[in-house]
Write the structure tokens for this entry.
Amino acid sequence: MTRTREIGRITFSLADAFRLGYDNVKRRFNRVVFSMAAITLGIAFFSNISLMDAFFRVYAQTEGGSLQVESYQYWLVLVSLAVCVISITNSMLIAVYERYREIGTMKCLGALDQHILKLFLVESIILSLLGGSLGFGIGLVASLISCGFTIGFHFILKVSLTAPLTLLGETILLSITLSTVATMYPAYRAARLNPVEALRYEV
Amino acid sequence: MRSDHIIETEDLARYFELGGEVIRALDGVNLKIRRGEYLSIVGPSGSGKTTIFNMIGGLDRPTRGSVIIDGVNISQLDAYELAWLRCRKIGYIFQTFNLIYTLTALENVALPTIFAGVSRDEGAKKAETILRSVGLGDRLNHRPLELSAGQQQRVAIARAMANDPAIILADEPTGNLDLHTGIEVIKLLRELNNTRGVTLIAATHDIKMIGASDRTVWIRDGKIEKIEEGGVNLKE
């Protein structure tokens, strides 16, 4: 058959994905809290240790202090980040199962596999931004308190903002990376769902 | 030249393998569906109604035979083209409504317009117009769970109409509704069929739906048993 196909465009822009993802995060908040808690805790621990390290360095340079973060503490951070990734993957997988019908329906309405993938990844980025900033805040407060007691609060006030600000950027990047890695497999599962099976699925 | 038939199936068959046994869900169905008609597909459960739907809707691929929509053999389409078909040409209505529970009525109806590339404002405006036309003008910002079953199905119908499809596939649209709301939904579908000229294909057990339709196809064991012109007369 040589009829020209009047096939047009199918779209799902990043802005649309963010809008839909944001709605989802907002309206399913009680479910989302668990994945966010995982990021928040992991990142809080990471930023706490990194900030303490930064403060100790400045202290060593300016006043010749000999405090430092022990290497086992870094190992603990690494383990906690690994646990964080695993628990995000776990809760995202559950979220995909819960949304089987929704995914099937969206595919009936014209969504492509890549659109579903995009939606789930964008949701995870939103979560990582929220969880990451919150985690950094908690880590910052914790490190200020612990350094304040060990070195002295007068010293903390003198530390320049460059180190903490750089660390904030790094932390957010780390948080997005971890969350994206953790969501990759669940999002792929969601995207590859066969709409016929997805619609038949009873939750 | 446009053919009088919007959908044609030729020797359409779909076999499934279940526990080493081949199940012939559809086994050689030849069906020509006229442009603008209201067709009911009737048959006992497991007769292949839903399978026909999935084939026509481009959700599943046939084992044998073909489905031709508007002159295009859809088994030759790739994933992108199928998605476009589902988005622009076909509207789906389900027994279980399948609304997205986190979105309001308006957002649900506007969702297909996003995939069709319609701007956000335009999509919302369109969704509002359609929702008003199905009598839900005062329920725009309600979530599905704040609506009755009949209202939810009307939102689903509005969503199916959002991209002005040529075909509406309704799988047991009154299956989860009581008598009264079921009749309202049938009236609404019939009205859309009359006023917008959309081809309506409904799988159903519901005798009221059969009564409203132009033609009825009876299916049994994956084959067409008979085709009746006009709805079945309920009084007899």
Q: What stands out?
A: The interface with chain B takes residues 1, 3, 5, 7-12, 16, 19-20, 23-24, 27-28, 101-102, 104-113, 115, 195-196, 199 of chain A (CB under 8 Å). The longest helix of chain A spans residues 113-150. Chain A has a mean pLDDT of 89.
